[in-house]
Amino acid sequence: MASISAADVKALRDRTGAAMMDSKAALVEADGDIDRAIELLRVKGQASAAKREGRGTNEGVVASYIHANNSVGAMVEVQCETDFVSRNEDFQVFAYQVALHVAATAPQYVSTDEIDPEAREAEKRVFEEKAREEGKPDNIVEKIVEGQLSKWASEVALLDQQHVNAEKHGSKTIEELRQELAAKTGENIRIARFSYFRVGGED
Predict the structure, then answer these.
(1) CA 91-62-19 angle, 5° bins
(2) What is the pLDDT of residues 8-17, one digit of tens each?
(3) What is the pLDDT of residues 143-184, one digit of tens each?
(4) Rounded Cα gap, residues 94 and 85, in angstroms
(5) Helix (H), strand (E) at residue 77
(6) C-alpha distances in Å from residue 88, one per residue of 9, 82, 140, 187
(7) In 3D, which of 196, 167, 172 has the Cα closest to residue 107?
(8) pTM for this entry
(9) Within 10 A of 35 (CB to CB), how many other CB atoms are there?
(10) Helix, strand or coil, per DSSP, at residue 115
(11) Cys-Cys crosslink for 18: which of 12, 22, 94, 154, Cβ 3.0 to 4.6 Å?
């Protein structure tokens, strides 16, 4: 059995954000292989996340961001399970960063599940017509349209978008950042809704 040092545990924690005991246990199970330990933590994290998703979120914050030109802004409601976590600095920073992102990108939905079926069908028709106008064979039009629809959905849904400050957030999506915070706090974190405002925009 490999000897697990405190430095090894710290290195794993720095890379994954996992708790000390979880990091040590993963390294022991992986016989000191840090890449294997990361895989184990991800699997366990996904299982824990699945359990968290079903828990109620009755606490949280409303965060806002107004751009320096005072012509664009956003508000977002981010929910959690306890008042303790809602007062946590990481939680509040996350909510602010989501509001900043919304102000910069003006998404239309929180998740792809919320996309209006009629809007999806309208986009599908456009993609189909375009593919046929370009002379694409019928047998591949469906695959082309499916790929374009998936790309479009990820562009209009907040959770699927890469945070606008990619350098600061390691090119992670809003959903990936949400999952990281949920794992760190041990609570179900949910972006409930948002509003985008632009001077002269529609009501």
Answers:
(1) 10
(2) 888 877 776 6
(3) 888 889 888 988 899 999 999 999 999 999 999 999 899 888
(4) 12
(5) strand 72-80
(6) 25, 10, 50, 12
(7) 196
(8) 0.68
(9) 9
(10) coil
(11) 22
CATH 1.10.8.10 domain residues, the chain: 6-53
Continuous segment of H or E residues that includes residue 75: strand 72-80
Residue intervals in the chain for CATH 1.10.286:
116-156
CATH code given to domain 59-110+157-198: 3.30.479.20
Burial 87-117 (b: 16+ CB within 10 A, else e): ebeebeebbbbbbbbbbbbbbebbebeebee
Of the candidates 182, 185, 199, 184, the residue with the CA atom closest to the CA atom of residue 49: 182
Residue with tokens 């600095």: 89
- Per residue in 109-129, pLDDT (tens digit) is 999 889 889 998 999 999 888
Is residue 182 a contact partner of residue 188, using CB atoms and an 8 Å limit? Answer: yes
- The answer for residues whose C-beta is within 8 angstroms of residue 164's C-beta and 6 or more apart is 100, 101, 104, 105
